[in-house]
Structure formats: C-alpha cells, structure tokens
C-alpha cells in the first residue's frame, strides 16, 4: 500500500525530469534562500505529485527543486511537513522515502529552533550532533518496510560524524560561527513555557524545534547519512526568554541564511 504510493510518486517525478540527484536537501522555516544557489533544471509542485502531502504553513511553499550545486546533482524540498499540521508521521516522512528512491546518497536538513544553551545567540547556527525525540509518535511504527531497512534501526550515528567533522573544518574558513549540539523535537504548535524550556535543557538538549527528527529517523532507517543544522531563532534560557512571534522567528532565520547557505553549499561541493 505505502510502497505502491511511493512508487506512483516516483514514477510521476521520473516522467518530469531525467536528473538523478545524489543529494537531498530539506529546507526549513525562512531558509529557502539556499535555492538561489541551485542551478535549477526542473521544479515540481508537491500538489502535482501523487500521494505527496501538501504544505499548509504559509512560510513554506511546497516544491521539489531539481538542479545542481557545483558539480553535484541535488533535489531540494522547499517546504516540509510538520506533525502539528495534522499530518501522520507517515505523511511527514513520505517525501524522504521518495528522495531515497530517486537515488540520493546524503540528506541535508535545516530547521529553525529555540536556543536552550545559554551560550547561544540569535541567528547563530548549531550543527546537530544528536537528538532527543519527544514527539508523541514514531514514523517507523507499524509493519516494517523491509525493502528500506531493518525493524530496529540503530541510532548511534544519527548524524554523520564525518560530515560534522568536515563542516567544523570548513566553517572558520567561511567566517561562519557554528555550535554543535543536541536537538530536541516537540510536537508544538505552541512554543514552550519557561518551565518546559528549563526541563528540555536539563534533559540534555541545546535547541528545541518541531521538525527534523521524523525525517532523520526515516533517513537512518534507510541508512542515508544525514547532516542537519538548526538556526537559533529565539533564546529560551533564563534571562533571555521573551514572548516570540512567528515573524520574529522568520526574521532571525533569514538573517542566518547567508551563513547557512555558504556552509551547506561548500559541504555539498566537497562531498566525497
Ligand atoms: N520552540 C519550539 N520550536 C521552535 C522554537 C521554540 O522556541 N523556535 C523555533 N522553533
């Protein structure tokens, strides 16, 4: 059933483009600017792809963008799906399965997140080196899709150590400041209370957001290497917490866009 839907989506995309992407990119809130670095050969609206969910958040336009960055072939998801929008975890992660079927060998992910670590400032970048999943459902629940991966996928290297090492090496030469830390996923859509932010930091998280973890779990189920970055859009530690609006989150994300774009593009171009 799911496999037939995935195959229908794949078949439709293959009819539209011959490009065989080796890299997949999921662009988060306010971070669509990376698409300007793509030498675009084809764009497909999510709404035209059979069984693809359609984005409902205004800050996310739903498109698959095919093209090249340097010598790499890429497919970027402009707009992603969140659990808080009412999608099932299967829907949230459907596109990641499709990207894998299209042939990608590495997945790049970005998101907007609240900074829990008191050394973080607004619009700084955090390379995700681990996560804590507090979402109420798991995308791998139900019958295992044996074609894609094992029943109990390991999560020791959820985020590729070699890509993290490469990014840490590249960042100073690009004059980009990066942190490394743990991302915790929550369901939202409300932001957290001060007590919840404190709790999330105490259990070991450096940044909090409402996305990414389902996609990463499904990517790792398929043994796809993942590199993910959070843009810190609001500060969530004592002394810095303030009421936050979506507009402020988007503005802070936009501010970080040039740095994030430089880092991602360099990393993609230097892939082995
Ligand atoms: N909490 C949860 N998700 C977020 C936040 C936050 O403070 N900022 C951006 N996404």
Describe this structure in words.
The chain has helices at residues 2-16, 89-102, 161-173, 194-202, 213-221, 246-269, and strands at residues 23-27, 39-45, 63-69, 72-78, 106-115, 125-133, 178-185, 207-209, 226-235. With 272 residues, the chain is an alpha/beta fold. It has a single domain (2-269), classed as Nucleoside phosphorylase domain (Rossmann fold). Strands 5-8-7-6-9 form a five-stranded mixed β-barrel, surrounded by four helices. The termini are far apart.
Major sheet description: 5 strands, mixed, barrel
**Chain-averaged pLDDT:** 94
Number of helices: 6
- The number of domains is 1
Distance between the first and last residues' Cα: 36 Å
C-alpha Rg, in Å? 17 Å
How are helices and strands ordered from N to C? HEEEEHEEHEHEHEH
Beta strand %: 15-25%
CATH class: Alpha Beta
Q: Provide the CATH topology.
A: Rossmann fold
> What ligands does this structure carry?
hypoxanthine
Instruction: Output the strand order for the largest sheet.
Output: 5-8-7-6-9
């Amino acid at each position: 059933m799911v496999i037939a839907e995935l195959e229908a989506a794949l078949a439709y995309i293959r009819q539209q483009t011959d490009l065989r992407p080796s890299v997949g990119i999921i662009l988060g809130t306010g971070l669509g600017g990376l698409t300007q670095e793509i030498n675009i050969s084809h764009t497909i609206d999510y709404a035209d792809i059979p069984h693809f969910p359609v984005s409902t958040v205004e800050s996310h336009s739903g498109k698959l963008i095919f093209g090249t960055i340097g010598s790499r072939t890429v497919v970027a998801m402009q707009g992603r799906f969140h659990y808080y929008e009412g999608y099932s975890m299967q829907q949230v992660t459907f596109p990641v399965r499709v990207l894998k079927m299209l042939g990608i060998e590495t997945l790049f992910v970005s998101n907007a997140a609240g900074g829990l670590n008191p050394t973080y400032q607004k619009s700084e970048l955090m390379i995700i080196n681990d996560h804590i999943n507090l979402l109420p459902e798991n995308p791998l629940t139900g019958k295992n899709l044996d074609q894609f991966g094992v029943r109990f996928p390991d999560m020791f290297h959820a985020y590729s150590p070699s890509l993290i090492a490469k990014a840490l090496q590249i960042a100073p030469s690009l004059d980009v400041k990066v942190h490394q830390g743990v991302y915790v996923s929550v369901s939202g859509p409300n932001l957290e209370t001060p007590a919840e932010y404190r709790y999330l930091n105490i259990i070991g998280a450096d940044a909090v957001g409402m996305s990414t973890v389902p996609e990463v779990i499904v990517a790792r189920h398929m043994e796809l290497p993942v590199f993910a970055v959070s843009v810190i859009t609001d500060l969530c530690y004592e002394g810095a917490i303030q009421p936050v609006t979506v507009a402020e989150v988007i503005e802070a994300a936009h501010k970080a866009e040039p740095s994030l774009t430089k880092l991602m593009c360099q990393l993609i171009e230097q892939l082995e």
